[in-house]
Amino acid sequence: MSIKRLPRNVWVLAVCQSLSMACAPLMILVGGLLGTQLAPSPKWATLPITAIILGTALSTIPAAILMNRIGRKRGSYVGFGFALLGTFVLMQAALVASFGLFLLGALLLGVNIAFAQQFRFAALESLKDENAFGAALSVLMLGGIFSALVGPEIGLLGKDLLDSPHGYAGSFLLLLGLILAAMVVFSLFKDPEIVDTDREEPSRPLRVIIGNPFFIVALIASAVSYGVMSLVMTATPISMHELCGIDLANTKQVIQGHITSMFVPSLIGGLLMKRFGVGWMLLAGAVLYAGMMVIGLGGQELFHFWWSLILLGIGWNFLFVGGTALLPRAYRSSERFKVQALNDFVVFGIQAIASLGAGWFLFEFGWTVLIWICLPAVLVAAIAALWLIRKRV
Questions:
Q1: By CB neighbour count within 10 A (0-12 exposed, 13-18 middle, 19+ buried), where does 57 fall?
Q2: Has residue 324 been placed in a domain?
Q3: ∠ CA 141-54-282 to the nearest 5 degrees?
Q4: Per the domain annotation, does 282 fall within a domain?
């Protein structure tokens, strides 16, 4: 199926994701910088970003259960409600310079992201042809380019929009407007019609499903993509601006370039997956992560940060999109919600651990050690990809 023939649901979800997910790149830039000012110790500067990821990890299973009971559309509006509440709390935290409120707002924003992460599964469920999975995921991921550019931009644009001790309260006011716009667009979404196969294919226990090799490889790909990316990306703004003295404008551009590189490959991702298969796509992602390590270990100048973060973004795209496309091979339609919930719980749980460890590792051991600890995960992803290639998938 060509991109032009994709159903309306896919396009609606892509627009909504691009608007609502601008919160992530905004918090990558603002969360660490404002966190440095509000936290009792610089080592806890990345804790707000960790709070977002923790909120996501803890909410993946409840979000999936809720959507299973009340449908994708109504469940997503619950997620939007958490986004509005979280953004308002973050704005108040900036206004009164409260680190505790900042963590609470970040946690609530993470709950919304757990609901938004279900958009990719809703897009796949809106398709009748499995061969269109790559094209649909490409369109959905392309919305991230908007998020990558707009998130950090409104972070700086709103820095002094409202009077606050350390700035950035206005950044969250602008984010509030984006979330409201996403809610309006989402009104065009219709719950996908899923054929109930429970009678012919009863739901299996999770212990059986997680033994499926396709589930294992899909989980490894997504977990490594987010774990390594979160560890390096979370530490980058602090390492650049606070430790290396690189100005805020260049720091913002590196983050924008990184997040853009996470989504631009989606222009050709569907074609690459169809032409070469998921296995080769995952292997390419692992190789790109290895390239990121080589450049990251080469130094801490602007050049090194810029290109290591570009490779990190492209590698994330190949691994995460490949893992997402592979996951439906491991479950039946009657099992989709619990398998998707388990997958996201593990993936974002690992991301939360990586994000929390980023600040601590950076201040305790430095940038070089932080890069080296990515090596085992990259090797595991490469081995999983090679197994998939042998299976001609």
A1: buried
A2: yes
A3: 40
A4: yes
Interatomic CA distance for residues 167 and 376, integer angstroms: 39
Structure tokens at 364: 């305790």
Amino acid at 261: S
d(CA 82, CA 319): 29
Round to whole Å and give the CA distance between 6 and 130.
12
- Residue 195 in domain: no
Q: What is the CATH number of the domain that holds 259?
A: 1.20.1250.20
End-to-end CA distance of the chain: 19
Q: Per-residue confidence of the chain (393 residues) as pLDDT tens digits?
A: 556 678 889 999 999 988 988 888 888 778 877 887 888 887 677 788 888 888 988 898 899 889 988 999 999 999 999 999 999 999 999 999 999 999 999 999 999 999 998 888 888 888 877 767 777 877 887 777 888 788 888 988 888 888 888 889 999 999 999 999 999 999 999 988 765 544 456 778 888 888 899 999 999 999 999 999 999 988 898 888 878 888 878 888 888 888 889 888 877 877 788 888 999 999 999 999 999 999 999 988 999 999 999 999 999 999 998 998 899 888 888 888 889 888 988 998 898 888 878 878 888 888 999 999 999 999 999 999 999 999 887
Cα 18 from Cα 148, distance rounded (Å): 9
Residue at 317 is within a domain: yes
| Domain around 320 | 7-187+204-390
Asked if 171 and 155 count as a contact pair (C-beta separation under 8 A), the reply is yes
Rounded-to-integer distance, Cα 15 and Cα 2, Å: 18
Query: Would you say how long the chain is, in residues?
Result: 393
Question: Number of structural domains, the chain?
Answer: 1
